[in-house]
Amino acid sequence: MLQQNPPDVVNLVLAGGVIAYPTEAVYGLGCDPDNEEAIRKLLELKQRPWEKGLILVASDFEQLSSYIDSTQLTTEQLQRAFDKWPGPFTFIMPTKVTTSRLLCGQFNSLAVRVSSHPGVQALCQALGKPIVSTSANLTGENPAMTAEEVIKQLGGKIDALVAGGLGAEPKPSTIIDAISGKILR
Known about the structure:
nine-stranded mixed β-sheet, globular, alpha/beta
């Protein structure tokens, strides 16, 4: 299903749908981070173990405040993220105790990013919150780089495929531990 009308996509996500959408480097697979049933559906169709956790992508840092515990980070640690955002940098940050275990996986932290992709920015602004973001592919397969690859791997399993182009990044986001500053990927 190809959706180009943003209100339709927003309503679909808020109703528990799982969508594929273009990001900075690859197509992402996403859903409402506050809907446990939608998260389970996403994990099942991607064949991803819940223990690995997921990424939340947002249009601004404020959208992440309900999920991460920024009081556990120093001003310098937060500034390190702010200096790279918006952009293709995902930071591992401490979570609030209310954050879903399905998002965090086996960790007490959550991977978060403020995206520079205009489509992701618009989607998150329209949702009024972040969206789950994991590469649009079956676990172990290469991430989808085109709409055709999304359809080949996940067609019939997702609720919508958002039209649009990928950003200019040659590879998925760099992942950085916000506390240590260590690059993990």
